[in-house]
Design a protein that fits this description.
The chain contains 17 helices and eight strands. The protein is an alpha/beta fold. It folds into two domains: 12-102 and 244-310, no CATH class; 113-241 and 316-385, Rossmann fold. A hairpin with a 6-residue loop joins strand 1 (113-116) and strand 2 (123-130).
Length: 387
């Protein structure tokens, strides 16, 4: 690959092998300050907006703030050296975990849809339901879909009613061209789903970003949810402010986020993303790559992943996390021993904070225990649920 205006050509495995060193150098060594400074300045000028709970809603602030025309201006103000780094980082971005913009969109929809949200702007969420018994609601992580539960959902359905849902913007759910993709927006929709399906004695099972949604649902003072949620299972979940990989920061720079998706084929993006999420790369299979890459081929899928990443750590998270100690329901915290995305320390801090929690470590695992170590994950969840 040459600079100086020549077009980069990416070709299968050779592409992955040649660009991996660049990717890992950027994600481990590139300073975050040049993106963080831009983000801080932009957010400082944005119109403040709060939700009904008094929490600042980043998606509303973004809508009332500056738009995509800010990209060229910020690039013009950057020194040439930083522009060069930013250009290289765009490649890394395309190879990053934003590629987990998953979905099972290629497959026929064999589950129903729930029509949720306001009547003038409804959102259809796809979900798969199986089994009978006390209900479990499975909430996937950033960029994933119901597909992520394929190894454990059938076994859980032997004793439970298992409902796996595609969050807004992922899998087979709607991907509207708006900016309402924050953890608060996702929790609003799932709260409505819980009420509409009249779920009681419910266990929320959340992975990564989905775990953050589960925590927020457990904290909700919504009278409609009172007494409905009885247990939590949190898998490598986001919970506290943390240093994010560079590609999440770059997704907040409009021009770079668009360039990244146009430069590298979705299958290449996805394979490298899975290499970050897995501890044992030999467990990544071609069907998984194709399934998770499919939505990246659509404009709506790209839009959803960009706007979800921009809000993955919501404003006010520090204040929100101070309320975790008020969650009294039994909680199982599962964590992979080699998580490079959400550090083990986050899980240990959650264990110290949640008064009725149990912590279990999943060995030889990256960031996705339900996919990389499904048998160990199932055993721990069954023991917690009393099955």
């Amino acid at each position: 690959m040459e600079s100086g205006g020549s077009e980069a050509t990416f070709n299968g495995k050779a592409c992955v092998k040649s660009l991996l060193p660049l990717y890992f150098w950027l994600t481990s060594a590139l300073p975050l300050e040049f993106c963080a400074g831009y983000n801080d300045n932009r957010r400082a000028g944005a119109t403040s907006a709060t939700d009904s709970r008094g929490t600042r809603r980043p998606e509303v602030a973004a809508a009332s703030g500056s738009g995509d025309d800010e990209g060229p201006r910020i690039l013009r103000r950057m020194p040439k050296r930083r522009l060069t780094v930013l250009g290289l980082a765009a490649i890394a971005l395309a190879l990053g975990s934003c590629a987990l913009s998953a979905g099972d969109a290629r497959r026929s929809a064999y589950g129903p849809y729930a029509r949720l949200g306001p009547p003038d702007a409804p959102v259809r969420l796809y979900y798969k339901e199986q089994g009978k018994g006390s209900p479990l609601l499975l909430i996937h992580g950033f960029g994933a879909s119901t597909y992520t539960w394929r190894h454990i959902a059938p076994e859980l359905a032997r004793d439970h009613l298992v409902i796996a849902v595609d969050l807004k913007g992922f899998g087979q759910s709607d991907k509207p061209f708006d900016e309402r993709y924050s953890v608060f927006d996702q929790a609003d929709l799932l709260a409505e789903l819980i009420v509409d399906k009249n779920l009681r004695n419910l266990t929320l099972v959340g992975h990564s970003f989905g775990g953050g949604v589960a925590l927020l649902l457990a904290l909700r003072a919504d009278p409609r949810l009172k007494g409905r949620i009885s247990k939590l299972v949190l898998l490598d979940t986001i919970a506290y402010p943390q240093n994010l990989p560079v590609f999440f920061r770059l997704l907040d720079v409009p021009v770079v986020s668009q360039l990244g998706f146009s430069m590298v084929p979705p299958e290449v993006q996805t394979r490298v993303a899975l290499r970050i999420a897995y501890f044992d790369n030999s467990k990544i299979d071609p069907d998984e790559v194709e399934t998770y890459a499919a939505p990246l081929k659509t404009a709506a899928g790209k839009h959803a992943i960009i706007h979800s990443a921009r809000q993955i750590v919501p404003d006010g998270l520090s204040e929100l996390s101070e309320r975790y100690s008020s969650i009294k329901i039994p909680t199982l915290i599962l964590w992979c021993d080699h998580d490079r995305i959400v550090p083990l320390g986050v899980g240990l801090k959650l264990r110290r904070t949640l008064p009725n929690s149990t912590f279990r470590l999943v060995e030889d695992c990256g960031h996705m225990p339900q996919e990389e170590q499904p048998e160990a994950t199932l055993k721990l969840i069954h023991a917690f649920l009393g099955g």
